Predict the structure.
Amino acid sequence: MLNDLKKGELIVFAAPSGAGKSSLIKEIISNNENIELSVSATTRSPREGETHGKDYFFITDNEFNDLKKKDAFIESADVHGHQYGTLKSFVEEKLENNISVVLDIDVQGFIQISNSIKEVISIFIIPPSLDELKKRLILRGLDADDVINRRMENAIKELKHAKYFDYIVLNDDFNRAFNDITSIIFDKNYEYNETYNKNILKDLLD
Ligand code: 5GP
């Protein structure tokens, strides 16, 4: 089933930080050679273990602004105080070679893309609760307290946009979320538990 994609497709993933999006994307990609992650440009500094050209293209504000002027981005946004952008050249090259591309972007980026590109599969990952989200952010130990608080405020803003995505996937169990996403991507008629997930989303926003 994992090799059923016939041509390159654009698959957009968004989620609040800590919802498990990156781990799920990693698993999807490592299970399929026809899907790759788009490497974005960003002005934020690399975290420990991150590599230029693999995790991101880490560039300066000036370089970012130059690329923006040259219309080099499919979309770009300011996220948590830094600039991020999806490189047109990167994505086009993959799609032309029949490789599907996963975009791990925020909702501002998704809105720009959905206004300009029709054929997109969009998936929003939700956590089971806001408490669980905060716990995951603390446990992963990547961010200082003030950054975690900023990410939590941002999380609520992001969750409000989840309804605009094609699919809402609950990540309370990694394997189940992985199976849901695999089915969404490879079996377009797959019926997942949409109503249940929408109710969880409603609870998160209440
Ligand atoms: P992080 O700094 O933790 O890697 O990413 C922070 C947020 O920026 C995540 O929600 C991620 O999805 C988003 N992001 C990463 N790359 C891009 C991009 O190219 N465009 C947009 N709009 N958001 C991005």
